[in-house]
Amino acid sequence: MSEVVVTASTLDLLGVASTASQGAVTKQELELRPVYRVGQLLETVPGLVVTVHSGEGKANQYLLRGFNLDHGTDLATFVDGMPVNERTHAHGQGYTDLNFLIPELASGIRFTKGPYDAAEGDFSSVGAVRMGLVDTLPVQAAASVGTVGDQRLFAGGTVPLASDARLTMAGEAVHLDGPWDHPDDLRKVNAALRLSQGDAADGAALTALYYRGLWNATTDQPERAVAEGRLISRFGTLDPSDGGQAERFSLSGTLDRQLGAARLGVSAYAIRSQLTLWNDFTHFLDDPVNGDQHAQNDRRTTLGGQAQAGFTHAVLGVAAETTLGVQGRWDDIYVDARHTLRRVDLETLLADRVREGNLSAFAETTLRWSDWARTVTGLRLDHFAAQDENLVGGLSGARQASVLQPKASLILGPWNRTELYVSAGGGFHSNDVRAGTLSDVGVVARPPFLVKSTGYEVGLRTSAIPHVQAAVTAFEMSFASELTYNADAGQTEAGRPGRRRGVEVTAQYRPFRWIELNANLALSRARYTDGDPAGPYIEDAPSLVASAGMLVDNLGPWFGALEFRDLGEHALTPDNRVRSAGYRELNLNLGYRITPKLKVQLDVFNVTNSKDDAAAYFYTDRLPGEPAGGVEDVHRHPLEPISARLAVSAVF
Questions:
Q1: Count of structural domains within the chain
Q2: Tens of pLDDT, residues 107-127
Q3: At 63, which CATH number?
């Protein structure tokens, strides 16, 4: 008899989870999902949208719970225990580029939402995503070709070694033009070596990853330049020399041991990366002769790790589980911004050498008061210190800050396969160390180094209905300072305080073992809370994110997936006078196993050929012949039109 297994989009964490919105995604779900770009693997997290506003080599845009997280701020992302978010970055605080990830190596995702987990720190207030890497990979090869100039080759596999050790090797080469009048011409290579022994509960692993990417970029373009084909087409660009290059090398290690009743976990990492982005957002607003293209350069070395121990015990006769941990990270950063013309330097505008580190300690205890009631309480302390040396005569100096974050959850149940959750907690995100201006009286005025956040959540998780998993969550999230996008600087900056209130609903239904139907809906209200007459609406904050999909696996030789995503309309200005309609997109994956070791797969993206925008912003730029002060306009980056990709893969 052959085993028939259906893929679940998330694991059933009833009796395990500490909040209603916590979850886990299986490797099978990652494999089935139709993804145009690797970062969209994170869209397996319910309610998370991954989109772009520039070239494919650049970090994606992330949206969750009414937050436009830009390139990753407030969505802490980890791969094999390594933080992906980059602090004091040339383009955006928390910059999160997943292009170094080979999809076949992802083993699954665990995610949290809200600041309720004591183990999560910087950038995790809205959400945290932790992706593991496989220890065993069947020897295999794959090739794909698409209709928008995309090709990919992949090969990898695991070789057994002595003493239960194994060596996993993998590599990919990717090319992608996209639909753009000036092709992206993305050229990307990835390589991985992973030496592992044992398993996740009692084992060790050492992993080396390498990534190199080169690309052109079509950024968001002014609406008036596209109208009626005045200057460019919908897929055109006013500056074809925009683009980027990136390189990343990392070495990471993990060690997990079961020591009697205690569990010990240790991880460490070293990352060396460099990035250059050439972007021209405002065109001729600042320089009417040479234009406003800027090169943003970022070179950094990141070192860090964590150690944690978990053990069971009793508190006044009550069964308890406690986890204690310490974390540390050090970034040595060179970052600059240069005025350029067709990628040729004209002048250096900003240049800084930054050394930034933090040390954190946390504790979390679960008390099981009865078989229907438990509490989870945690406390986290983060201390940050940084030294900024401005290399072009601007502000220099040192900064330090600490933040204490209490967290707590009450879980009642299960009754009839249903649990109730109440959670509250504090969190934070760090700001760019370089942020600061001189006031009228000559005193340095800086936004806070660490920005506090507060979250509350009430939810329900149930499997009471046969073949159904469902969760409903009501949440509130407040920040002392929102990070907003500044087109003039080409990066995020600290802004006004804000709050989100909303409701999330997620459900998965498996009527048969070979199929799953899933749906997710998030409604939120995002408003500034300072009463500024500019208006209360938080820019680029979607009020609705919805998705629905179907997963099919082992239906004879057939497998596949269908996914629909709806990003609702939202304000582009604080006074709500300019709005974006958001976008709707349908993607399809259909596969056939010719033999148990050979399969063919067809992905179709934007099946309905939607003409919506993947991203939209409202700011001032200037085209030739326009007033010196420029023109306010909506700037759009369209969804890619309907396209297809055919892949063949074989296991040896």
A1: 1
A2: 999 999 999 999 999 999 999
A3: 2.40.170.20
